[in-house]
Amino acid sequence: MVIVITTHGSTGDIFPLIGLSVMLKEAGHDVRFATSRPFQKDIEDAGVDFYPIPPDWNQSDLASWMGKLQTVKSPIKQLKILYKATLPYLEESIDAMDSILEGADCLISSYLFPINGAIAKRRKIPFITYAFAHNTVPSRYYPPHGMPRLRGLPQPIQLRWNRFAWKICNVAVDTAINQTISRKLKKKGLSPVKDFFSKSANLVLVAVSPALMQPKTKLNKRFRFTGYCRWQSPQLDKLDQEIEAFRENQRVPILTFGSMVYQDPDAYVGRLLAHWPKDKKLIIQTGWSGFEVPKSAANILQIGPVSHDQLFRHGSVIIHHGGAGTTASALHAGKPQIVVPHIGDQDFFGSEVSRLGCGLECLKRKWPEQLYSKVETIESSKKLLECAEDCKDLLEQENGPRAALEQITSFVEAERSNHSYET
Question: How many CB atoms lie within 10 A of CB 155?
Answer without folding.
Answer: 9
